[in-house]
Amino acid sequence: MADLLVVLALTLVVAAATAAVLTRDPARQALVLALLGLALAVLFTALQSPDVALSQLAVGSALTPLMLLLTVRKVRGRGHRGDRKRGRA
User: Fold this and answer.
1) Which run of H or of E encompasses 24?
2) In terms of C-beta density within 10 A (0-12 exposed, 13-18 middle, 19 or more buried), how is residue 83 classed?
3) How buried is 23 (Cβ within 10 angstroms: 0-12 exposed, 13-18 middle, 19+ buried)?
4) With 0-12 CB in 10 A as exposed, 13-18 as middle and 19+ as buried, what is 25?
5) Cα-flanking dihedrals φ and ψ of residue 80, to 5°?
6) How far is CA 48 from the centre of its chain?
7) In this predicted model, what pLDDT tens digit does every residue of 37-85 receive, in sequence order?
């Protein structure tokens, strides 16, 4: 039973990692990265490593995608502001 759970978790990790690589939009990539972090946390839990799973939840599922989303927002905001300064709409 435990082996089946590990195989299912690995399958979920592979699917999420593939989706993260194939996604082109940076904002969507951050969301898929959060999904990947969640899948990895499930895998670590299935492998009986709860301390690593909790760290993965905090950093990989919450903090890193949040920082990426804030960065994308700031970069996209600068691009629009720069266009207004030059007289473009």
Assistant:
1) none
2) exposed
3) middle
4) exposed
5) -70, -40
6) 23
7) 999 999 999 999 999 999 999 999 999 999 999 999 999 887 765 555 6
Nearest residue to 17 (alpha-carbon basis) of 34, 31, 36: 36
| Cα–Cα distance measured from residue 52 to residue 73, given in angstroms and rounded to the nearest whole number | 30
Other Cβ atoms less than 10 A from the Cβ of 5: the count is 14
User: What is the Cα–Cα distance from 59 to 51, expressed in whole angstroms?
Assistant: 12
Alpha helices in 23-88 (DSSP H): 26-46, 50-58, 64-85
**70: which 2 tokens?**
């804030």
Positive or negative: CA dihedral 75, 76, 77, 82: positive
34: CB partners within 8 A, 6+ apart: 60, 61, 62, 65
